[in-house]
Write a structure and sequence with these properties.
Largest sheet of chain B: 6 strands, mixed
CATH architecture of chain A: Orthogonal Bundle
Shape of chain B: elongated
Radius of gyration of chain A: 22 Å
Distance between the termini of chain B: 39 Å
Structural class of chain A: mainly alpha
Strand content of chain A: under 5%
Largest interface: A-B, 22 and 29 residues
Largest sheet of chain A: none
Helix content of chain B: 25-40%
Shape of chain A: globular
Radius of gyration of chain B: 25 Å
Number of helices of chain A: 12
Strand content of chain B: 35-45%
Number of strands of chain B: 20
Oligomer: heterodimer
Structural class of chain B: alpha+beta
CATH superfamily of chain A: MetI-like
Number of helices of chain B: 9
Helix content of chain A: over 70%
């Protein structure tokens, strides 16, 4: 292939410059801790609780977004209605909004005297200052990823495939589960992965609504910032390293699943 | 299974796609819906299939009204122009789909489904390709998978929307012949949509020519070609020349030239004369005929195709000359239509 050497070389150079070199400093820094101290900090009870919250809430939020993001993408692709452009633009708002603004807005709504909080709280559902609040914030910031990943694939799928399924006697549910869902599966997975990755690293919107109680509603990025504020740079990089490796392994896994499912379609 | 369409109308917004259509397909018949794009032929097919519902009128299969039945329950096979195969399924799974989505009590056993799929793949000459994915097949092969998939549910009616539209000429021709055989062998009643007149004339028992949501003519290919019912049909099917003429005292005139036409019963007034390139006699200049100047002459089939310009008409006439001494460019000739049709100007 002409240009392969040049383009690959540039790609690697660029990735190194933008991604690899900055990230490698995290590892270099954390190595100065020594293995015992690294484990003590990186896998302390408080750190593990924060990992559980960060990854768990990100997964839950990505799952919620996969469901409703698919629904929104469906509506945007399949139907024409007035102000459709406006609705479509609204989907992208979480991309653009400073996350702190989102966090403050969500907190205001879900606090016990907020618009929604005043009804939810008497019903026994506490959102603000709980892990549930973290999930709500991550659902907000992750929404565009699923919608924008699924939309083009859904548009490309074509209505005739659904009609073909119907002509062969398949009802709506069977058509969806056997024809549409498998076809958009890889794109949905991409959206899930992006929303998940965003959720794991999210800081700004979460810290306002989470309440940040250690062991309960404290996310890993916040824990890292806490360490930094105490000038414990090595400790911060230890936690960061653990997150980084875990995130990388999860994204790699999702990528492999995608390659596998995509190969089945185009091999 | 017979199909009866009566009084079907369909509008999309302010656009009348179909206006009061009546059509009947006898059991075992192979019908072609032929027309330009926007003529309503695809809409009509989709209404017969149950993919679209009419604003007025009824569709009946063997006398049973199915107008309000969705396609899921009509038991028709439908083949889409772009194949509409399920990309994530193997060829075999595509073909089996109609059987595997049946309710448990109607669903054949796994082994039976596999056997049927083999049989169908054999029928469409795709034996051994069951484990491939649609992306690994050529266009013609994909269309045959689509056909096998439609036939798997044993429909009595097969509806095809531009089935060969996306294929190249050679493949089209082979598939055409093969589809006709399949139709006859399986005792189907088939309707297919096409904008390709050659395809319609070659394949169908009867051709339904449509324009602007109306049926212009329903007839056998011979009648459609030799005895077109309207100016539109004459123009649309086969090659033709059209001349604006006026009829005065029972005689047609092109400008000041009286034309020596075969008998016709056109009323006096403006009219359009149609004739096919091979239905003319080329005579020497000066005889009572249309005076024309040859602009192009080149061999074509067993004849010489001549293009001749004629005063007062922009497009040249297209004529076939079958003799041994074809006129050359620049020659003045007389053109005398042997078989022609006059249609009054609406």
């Amino acid at each position: 292939m002409p240009g392969f050497g040049l383009t690959l070389g540039f790609t690697l150079f660029y990735l190194s410059l933008i991604v690899l070199i900055p990230l490698s400093t995290i590892f270099i820094r954390s190595v100065t801790l020594g293995p015992q101290h690294f484990i003590d900090v990186g896998f302390s009870e408080r750190a593990i609780a924060s990992y559980r919250l960060s990854f768990g809430a990100a997964a839950a939020a990505a799952a919620v977004n996969s469901l409703f993001g698919l629904l929104i993408a469906w509506v945007l692709v399949r139907y024409d209605f007035p102000l459709k452009r406006l609705v479509s633009a609204m989907v992208d708002l979480p991309f653009a909004l400073p996350t702190a603004v989102a966090g403050i807005a969500l907190t205001a709504i879900y606090a016990n005297n907020g618009w929604l909080g005043q009804y939810l709280e008497p019903a026994g559902i506490k959102v603000a200052y709980t892990p549930l609040g973290v999930v709500v914030a991550l659902v907000f910031v992750g929404l565009p990823f699923v919608v924008r990943s699924v939309e083009p694939v859904l548009a490309d799928l074509g209505h005739d495939v659904e009609e073909a399924a119907a002509s062969l006697g398949a009802g709506r549910i069977l058509t969806f589960t056997r024809v549409i869902l498998p076809a958009i599966g890889p794109a949905l997975l991409t959206g899930f992965a992006l929303a998940f990755a965003r959720g794991v690293g999210e800081y700004g919107s979460v810290i306002f609504i989470a309440g940040n109680m250690p062991y309960v509603s404290e996310v890993s990025p916040l824990l890292i910032v806490t360490q930094l504020e105490q000038y414990d740079y090595a400790g911060a990089t230890a936690i960061a390293s653990v997150m980084l490796i875990a995130s990388f392994l999860l994204l790699l896994l999702i990528n492999l699943i995608q390659i596998w499912s995509r190969n089945r379609m185009t091999a | 299974m017979g199909i009866t369409v009566s009084g079907i109308s369909k509008r999309f917004g302010g656009f009348t796609a179909l206006g009061d259509i009546d059509l009947e397909a006898k059991p075992g018949e192979f019908l072609a819906l032929l027309g330009p794009s926007g003529s309503g032929k695809t809409t009509l097919l989709r209404i017969i299939a149950g993919l679209e519902f009419p604003d007025a009128g009824t569709v009946a299969f063997d006398g049973v009204d199915v107008t309000n039945q969705p396609i899921t329950d009509r038991g028709v096979g439908f083949v889409f122009q772009q194949y509409a195969l399920f990309r994530h399924m193997t060829v075999a799974d595509n073909v089996a789909f109609g059987l595997t989505v049946r309710k448990k009590r109607d669903r054949p056993a796994k082994a039976e489904i596999a056997r049927r799929v083999e049989e169908l793949l054999d029928l469409v000459h795709l034996k051994g390709l069951g484990r491939r994915y649609p992306a690994q097949l050529s266009g013609g092969q994909r269309q045959r998978v689509a056909l096998a998939r439609a036939l798997a549910v044993e429909p009595r009616i097969l509806l095809l929307d531009e089935p060969f539209g996306a294929l190249d000429a050679k493949v089209r021709k082979d598939l055409r012949r093969w589809l006709r055989e399949l139709h006859d062998r399986m005792g189907l009643t088939s309707i297919f949509v096409t904008h390709d007149q050659e395809e319609a004339l070659e394949l169908a028992d009867r051709v339904v020519v449509m324009d602007h949501g109306k049926i212009e003519q329903i007839a056998t290919p011979e009648t459609i070609y030799n005895d077109p019912a309207s100016a539109f049909v004459f123009d649309f099917v086969g090659e033709s020349n059209r001349l604006p003429i006026s009829v005065r005292g029972g005689t047609a005139h092109f400008g000041q030239h009286p034309l020596d036409l075969p008998p016709h019963e056109a009323a006096d007034g403006e009219a359009t004369l149609f004739f096919r390139p091979h239905d003319v006699e080329i005579v020497d200049d000066g005889a009572p005929a249309l005076p024309a100047v040859v602009t192009l002459a080149r061999p074509r089939g067993g004849a010489t195709r001549i293009e001749a310009s004629i005063t007062g008409r922009e497009a040249p006439l297209e004529l076939d000359y079958k003799g041994d001494a074809p006129p050359r460019p620049g020659d003045r000739i007389g053109v005398r239509p042997l078989r022609a049709r006059l249609f009054g100007v609406q």
